[in-house]
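Schema walkthrough. Field components (list of strings):
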Amino acid sequence: MMRWRQLLSWLALSLLLALPARAEGPACGAPADALEAAALKGTQIAVDRGTLRVMVVGSASTQTGGTSGANATWPHRFQRLMAARLPGVRVELRNEGARGMTAAEHARVLADLGPDFRPHLVIWQLGTVEAARGLSADDLADTVKATAGHIRAARGERTDVVLVDQQFSRFLRANADVDLYRDRLRMAAAASGAQLFSRWTIMRYWVDNERLDLERAPRSQRVTVADELHDCLARALVEFVLDGVREAR
Amino acid sequence: MAVPRISLVRPGRDLRVDFVRGIALWMIFVNHMPGNVLTYLTLRKVSLGDATEAFVLLAGYAAGIAYGRALERDGWLRAGARVVQRVGTLYVAHIFLFVVFTAQVGFSAAALDQAAFLDELALDPFSQEPYRALFEALLLRYQPAFLDVLPLYIVVLALFAVTMPLMRNLGLMLACSGLLYAAARLFDLQLPSWTGDAWFFNPFAWQLLFVIGIWLGRAPPERLARWFPWNRWLAMALGVLLAANALALNLFWGVTLSSIATPEWIYDWYSTIDKAGLHPARLVSILVLVWMVAHLLPASAAWLNGRIAGLFILMGQRGLPVFCLGIFLSFLGRVTLEASSDWWVQVAVNALGLAALIGLAALSAWYDGAEGKRKAPVLPQNGNMAKTS
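Field assembly_structure (string):
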């Protein structure tokens, strides 16, 4: 049995190596429509001027999220990948996420630190803690709308807000009413001029296509798979943001 | 009167109500399984409300008929005691389902071998403060996901036991209920919860739907028909509105937002429609649906006596046990879909689940029938007996 599995994985690996790298689309083959953004005006102006300040707030996945370290998480990878894709542009990152933070706590962080840092792009990963703890989905939507409203009032078009929804997880889906929170997030984003980057949709696609499946990864592989997942997510987010920049031009 | 094809169906009631209730129970079962493809066929995907509204409204309808009669026959004390007994049953059922849920969380965490996920999600206050969690669950202040409808039903029925005599004056009852609803929404009157700020469903708001159900069950049908006559133009206008609404909702769910230039205010309005406090738009939406179904689906429709409709009617007539089994089976369904959500697993989960719900309804009907026959001679002769049983 074991030998067969080994043989199969060798076969798969050699196949992968044999295939040209572009066999998979950009961002680890994430579905194209999940990478489409509307215009991100603030980001585009910042990119044209040469300095892009990105502020990330979120929960566990922005802190370490099971990866090999803080530097391996998607926010840091996003910063590096963006800098690589935008030569001559300085990409500054302020990552204020922490495990277990709720959207209401993120809103306070944004209100406290935002005026000082003056981000051009706020990436706000939220909704998992609310869904897991059964906090009010209505309050979640209200927080998003109020915070996006404050940012818009203070910064106008100079700051874009991108919401990042929950990670796809069979466990979360089976044990929390996650669809309710996803629906509310989507609506809150549409209501407040923020954009939604659907991590759920993308990760689900990877799971369905057996591309990346953190939940089913053997324990010994978990850190490696988490690193790869964060890399792929960062790549997808880069595509999304650059699409928004293109749309704004 | 036509005789239903399925002998276990109780004739003589408005079968439409039982049919719709059966459909609602089935939808609740489906909606309790995120990842189930049939979710796309349920009310929540095309309407502002979902099956919960239908369930609460029709629970009120059934309660109005059953306990209204009991109130007239036996007085408040005896009829109220029966309601309290029902509340007790519901409470025990809820605690049982709570235990099942806790076991399920533990099971799926172990099955997926992912303590990291469980830790990150803090899904499980039970592991951190087990005694407190149990205590809070007994107080109904801790309601894990998917276990929020029964606590609502328990409190609404308890309120009903206390306020039963109001049924003698339906207008007054409706007015009191409307006032409580308004107060709940205006002053944020709600029940506290341990994990969040408040209950998932605010009973002080949702009771209005239950009371409207009682009112519909108690008011003479001729009067209802006079007050809410059929108007083709109004119906067409509302039909267009419902269709537009369904379209708008599916634009959210199905299509990337960047491709449609929909004004923000529409989404802004949609995002204010809360479920917890039964937003007036949700209330209006379900009442419009009731009005349309009541007129478009004649009580004498032949297919209501057919086999397929009969199965749902049977479920609707056994609301409580079917509801509880549905919640229980949805746990199993979720665990199964967690393991695999391939098409054949989806088919199996849905087919077996529905069959089990129908099976339980049939069993319960058969048992009551047998029990009724055994007890019948002991009861005093009563001309209405045939109708009430």
